[in-house]
Amino acid sequence: MPSAVVLNFPCMENDRPDPALPNRIRFWRVKRNLTLKGLAGTLGMSHGHLANLERGLRELNVATMERIARALGVSAADLLKESDGGLSERERLIVETYREVPEAMRRSLDAVAESQQPFRGSDEVRPLHPDTVANDGTADSNGSSPRKRA
Q1: Residue 86 reports pLDDT greater than 90
Q2: Can you give the pLDDT at residue 146?
Q3: Which tops the pLDDT comparison, 42 or 82?
Q4: 9: which DSSP letter?
Q5: Domains in the chain, please, with CATH?
Q6: Residue 39 has pLDDT above 60, yes or no
Q7: What is the pLDDT of residue 53?
Q8: 90-104 burial by CB neighbour count: b if 16+ within 10 A, else e?
Q9: Contact yes or no for 56/21 (Cβ under 8 A)
Q10: Which of 45, 121, 133, 147 has its CA 20 to 30 A from that of 83?
Q11: CA 39 → CA 45, 57, 71, distances in Å?
């Protein structure tokens, strides 16, 4: 006889997505102080159906994901877990900032991103300017690298 698995969903008091859930619908709903019934009513679906979407008991298609995202005031990608390509809070802040700064600043940010491409996936850290490293390659006691003296 198959045994039942009981899943306990902890309160979202820590304001972080629950890694046990298959998506972040509940995270954003709770963050927006919306009830299941309230959001379901806005979406024109039953609260039971929405609860099943939150728990991954129903398949979440792109059209429904986009409707839910609009109702929550987020992008559809924000409903994805980080492991599925969703953004962390820090990454989301970077993207939002990038979209809101003037074009000249975006070009500067693009240049920084481009300069870091060789180091993606690496633990290696290199200074932006070669003259900021001490002769032995270490940083000074306050964590910054001293400049070479002429």
Answers
A1: no
A2: 47
A3: 42
A4: -
A5: 25-84 (1.10.260.40), 89-132 (no CATH)
A6: yes
A7: 94
A8: eeeeeeeeeeeeeee
A9: yes
A10: 45
A11: 9, 18, 8
Residue 147 predicted with pLDDT over 50? no
Burial classification of residue 85, based on how many CB atoms lie within 10 Å of its CB (0-12 exposed, 13-18 middle, 19 or more buried): exposed
Closest CA to 25 of 12, 14, 6: 12
| Highest averaged pLDDT of the listed ranges 1-10, 40-49, 118-127 | 40-49
Q: What is the dihedral of CA 124, 125, 126, 128, to 10 degrees?
A: 140
pTM recorded for the entire structure: 0.58
> Burial level of 122, CB count in 10 A (0-12/13-18/19+)?
exposed
Helix ranges, the chain (H): 25-31, 36-43, 47-55, 62-72, 89-100, 103-115
